[in-house]
Design a protein that fits this description.
Blueprint lengths: L5 E3 L6 H17 L6 E8 L7 E7 L2 E7 L7 H14 L9 H14 L9 H4 L14 E5 L5 E4 L4 H6 L16 E6 L1
Helix pairs in contact: 1-2
Amino acid sequence: MQDSFRIITAGNVDRIRFKKIIMSAEQKLDELGIEYGNIVLWEVNTRARKRYGQCRIIRSGCYSIDISETIFEADDNAVEEVVMHELIHSCKGCMNHGALWKKYAHMLNERYGCNITTTGSDEKYGIKNSETNSNCDYKYLYRCCGCGRFIGYHKKGKVVKILSGELKGYVSCKCGSRKFVVHKWS
């Protein structure tokens, strides 16, 4: 467990609750002998809408972890799973979701009955009506035919014009697919 770190909270997130969750997650990794990096900053991100957490290297051996404000709508166990997910990323050789990351996640899942996975969803964490789960805020919404991912836009910019056939060009999804169908057009 780390001696000192800085927590920056925002929105409606309770700082004491966040610190207890961090300390509990660190204790679980410590008990299993999983050596994680030196987290010098924990921050609640009020802008993240498509991810629940992010681990970044600040300098050699030092990390900053952002946790989305959205996940705090869930119970403490869900928040702790996200915190542990990001802590694993700070382990040597675990900045991706490779074999070592998966090994550590499996160890935690087996020992503590967690469900740490490479991705999360509002449904998994029991979050209702969040912006990560709601597609109704976008004026233009497309669904990728390759992976089913929704891509939304508020304005009719270049990408929307390409997707609607008004401009020549192509747009590709993270999965590599270039085929999209209109899901909503307001």
